[in-house]
Amino acid sequence: MDEFMNKIIEIGATSGGKIMLAIIVLVVGLLLIKFVTKMVNKRLEKSKLDPTVKNVLGKLIKILLYVVLLVGLIEILGVPMTSVAALIASGGLAVGLGFQGALANLAGGFLILIFKPFKLGDYIQAADAEGVVKDISIFYTKLLTLDNKTVLIPNGDLMSSNVTNLTAEPVRRIDLDFKITNDIDQNFVKSVLFDAAEKCESTLLDPPPFARLTAVDDDTYIFTVRAWCNTETYWDSYFDLIETCSKALADHGIDDPEERIAVRLVSEEAEEEKDGE
Q1: Contacts of 256 (CB under 8 A, 6+ apart)
Q2: pLDDT at residue 166, as a whole number
């Protein structure tokens, strides 16, 4: 025990100054990093760079400052940089294998920054998830779903899978299918649906809407209605078009075959009750 305490005292006497200096540099360095990153973020906010680039660049600068601080502390403590370099080189393979997933995510983050398949505020579908892009970090991309859930997707998965950007273009197309009984004139149904799509206020007339018979299933006709709308109003336009077309069909006495079957069943049950009486 005495030998151990003597060793501690010897180390404190020989390296105490270096340790104290390293502690001071650490505290001052952390404060400087906080100040510099704050200033950099303000400058980036005022710049005309893409929001995604601003976000990733700010985080990258912060990491680089921490690396510089770490190297400075190693120099102050008197650890030879050649020894540190040899240690990093010898452990590089093991670290690479252990963190290959993290490295893939890091590479994915840089690819997203370079190729820009999406940006903050876009609505995307990727890696079995979909939502609004709220944050793009070096390793993960954060999505906010329509029901207000936060989904974190590794950038490596994003860059190795199909990504559908639903808000990349200014306009989108709405596709709806309507089942109609086959005892009604096709041209009449087509004209009713086409007029309804044209009169829907939230859809566009250029490109013009589309309404045609697209399939036949047993005793059922399937008509498809397609209309274009502005991307930012897609969901409002989608529901408006459903309501407008459904109301137009009902106003002209065109019913759904499933509704007709339900009516027939009710009628048969009513007849059986009458016969029983």
Answers
A1: 178, 179, 180, 181
A2: 94
